[in-house]
Specification:
Blueprint lengths: L5 E5 L2 E5 L13 E6 L11 E5 L3 E4 L3 E8 L2 E6 L13 E6 L6 E5 L3 H18 L2 E3 L6 E7 L2 E4 L17 H7 L5 H7 L4 E3 L2 H10 L3 H8 L33 E10 L3 E8 L6 E6 L8 E3 L1
Parallel strand pairs: 1-7
Antiparallel strand pairs: 1-2, 3-4, 4-5, 5-6, 6-7, 8-9, 10-11, 11-12, 13-17, 14-15, 15-16
Length: 297
């Protein structure tokens, strides 16, 4: 995650900054991006820019600038006079932006699919190394992952408890996303030695990966989310968009029950979406159908 390449946006023009060729070479921890133009090609504009993780930067070795990541672009808050809208360096495209205020990755144009394939392959390698356990009730095998001191199922529960359903009643969806459960069923559906995650356990999870605002990016699977809404799956949690309720939003969003009630008729749940990087916390009626993640006792 420290292999970073950055992009800058000033008004309606773009200034691309990057480290070496964007091929994944390690950058010193404090430096998150740099761009160096071929000699003589800048026509009086800056030849070298360096950006640092504290939000500062230097142009041509002496002029200070400041910056931040906003809406998947790195925005200059101050810059050298003359950094005009006709100053454009092409050849790079956005691969990933964490929107944490200091991180974005760009790769050479034409290399984006290769970059994504490498990330997916690395994610699969990590998942294959996770420990597994077998649910003795139906012999289903689940991966498990420890994050923030708690051990979670690294995939949605797929135990055919009475009252649970496959999305659109299609068994293929159960294999991919796990089953959907009403809350009363979810409370009793986890295998022996496991339990439905509490609201506090969900909070511990999201805090451990950087907080609600960016936890979705870190927890979502690297594939399966529509409109390029995939995550980085940094920990192997592999959250998938299994939909909800009366069978809608599969591929777009995922919803997971907690065991914590909210008032008389509602229960806390967590949601992740293809359009966002965070994890939402809300409450819904107990009869709705959501996915389940179990936590080891």
């Amino acid at each position: 995650m420290k292999r970073l390449v950055a992009v800058a946006q000033l008004a309606l023009c773009f200034v691309f900054v990057f480290c070496n060729s964007g091929d994944g070479q390690t950058i010193p921890a404090e430096l998150v991006g740099q761009w160096e133009h071929a000699s003589g090609a800048t026509k009086g504009k800056p030849e070298k820019m360096e950006l640092f993780k504290d939000g500062t930067g230097v142009i041509d070795g002496s002029i200070s600038i400041s910056w931040k990541v906003e809406n998947k672009r790195l925005v200059f808050l101050s810059a050298k006079q003359g950094l005009a809208c006709d100053y454009k360096v092409s050849g790079y495209e956005l691969a990933l932006a964490y929107d944490d205020g200091a991180s974005a990755i760009f790769v050479r144009k034409g290399k984006l699919e290769e970059f994504k394939a490498k990330r997916i392959a690395e994610s699969k390698r990590v998942l294959e190394q996770l420990p597994k356990f077998t649910d003795s009730r139906d012999s289903n095998v689940y991966r498990k992952v420890t994050i923030g001191g708690k051990t979670w199922m690294a995939e949605n529960l797929n135990f055919a408890a009475e009252g649970s359903k496959c999305y659109k009643n299609d068994a293929v969806n159960c294999e991919k996303y796990g089953r959907l459960y009403n809350w009363e069923t979810a409370l009793k559906a986890c295998p022996a030695g496991w339990h439905l995650a509490t609201d506090d356990e969900w909070a511990t999870l999201t805090d451990a990966v950087g907080g609600n605002d960016i936890a979705g990016t870190k927890l979502k699977s690297t594939t399966g989310w529509e409109e390029d809404g995939n995550g980085t799956d940094d920990y192997g949690f592999s959250a998938l968009p299994g939909g909800r309720g009366s069978f809608f939003s599969v591929g777009e969003s995922g919803y997971w029950w907690s065991s914590s009630v909210y008032g008389v008729y509602k229960v806390r749940y967590r949601g992740m979406y293809h359009t966002g990087k965070g994890v939402s916390m809300n409450a819904d009626i107990k009869t709705n159908l959501f996915s389940v993640r179990c936590v080891e006792d």
